Amino acid sequence: MVTHKKKKIRLEFEIKSSPAMLYNSISTPSGLANWFADDVDIYNNLYKFKWNKDELIAEVLKKTVNKMIKFKWKDSRLEEYFEFEILQDELTDDVALVITDFVDANDEKNAVQLWESQVNELKMSLGA
Question: Whole-model pTM?
Answer without folding.
Answer: 0.91
